[in-house]
Amino acid sequence: MTDFKIREGFPKSEIEFDQRFNNPEACYEYLADSKWPNGFICEKCGHNACWISAKFIYICTKCEHQYSLTAGTIMHGTRKPITYWFKAMWWFTTRG
Questions:
Q1: Rounded distance between C-alpha atoms, residue 51 and residue 56, angstroms
Q2: 3-state DSSP helix/strand/coil percent for the chain, to nearest 5?
Q3: How far apart are CA 7 and CA 20, in angstroms?
Q4: For the chain, how many structural domains are there in total?
Q5: Is residue 4, in this structure, part of any structural domain at all?
Q6: Is residue 56 a contact partner of residue 69, using CB atoms and an 8 Å limit?
């Protein structure tokens, strides 16, 4: 299991959260930065460049291996928008 760490700059209030994660692009960017803090690196060939599809699938430009940022998570295969998942996780993790 991977340890969860709140990164610097994570929203400290619901207003900050709503401003930061108000669209899918912001949510996927956060997941990508969490997965690859030093930039994209293909786990298959080690290449450091990728394309991002309209469905936010990261595709290595060298070997074309595909990465879904939600694979292996509770969000995998969902039909709900990722913004809904982020909001639900926010509520779940910030309520004492």
A1: 9
A2: 35, 10, 55
A3: 14
A4: 1
A5: no
A6: yes
The residue assigned the tokens 């619901």 is: 14
11: Cβ contacts below 8 Å, ≥ 6 apart? 17, 19, 20, 21, 90
> Which residue range forms the structural domain that includes residue 73?
14-90
* Residue corresponding to tokens 């509770």: 74
Q: pLDDT by residue (tens digit) across 10-61?
A: 788 899 999 999 999 999 999 999 999 999 999 999 999 999 999 999 999 9
Q: Residue 50: enclosing H or E segment and its boundaries?
A: strand 50-52
DSSP state letter for 80: S
Q: How many CB atoms are closer than 10 A to CB 34?
A: 13
pLDDT band of residue 94 (cuts 50, 70, 90) is confident
- Inside any domain, residue 37: yes
